[in-house]
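Project standup — Tuesday

K.O.: blocked on the structure for the chain from last sprint. Re-posting the sequence here as requested.
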Amino acid sequence: AKSGRSEHLLPGSVKGTVLNSSSISHAVRDIRLDMEKNGLCDSQFSFIDFRRTIETKLAQLGVSKDYRAQIQSHG
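H.V.: unblocked you, prediction finished:
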């Protein structure tokens, strides 16, 4: 975000906007397909798997439920 001069971690193509979640999902799918093709991955994963893992790790770090919800855009 800093190198892209944005206040958002995943900035959109229009200044002041965030990257669309479907764009992220498509990018994760493309990465997975490429990893499968090159023998680097033998199980499927998707964007929701990253969200779930992030939620778990934040909880393990002691981040409050309210902050985790805000980070995950649930509140």
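K.O.: great, moving the ticket to review. Helices lie at 21-37, 47-60, 65-71. The chain has three helices and no strands.
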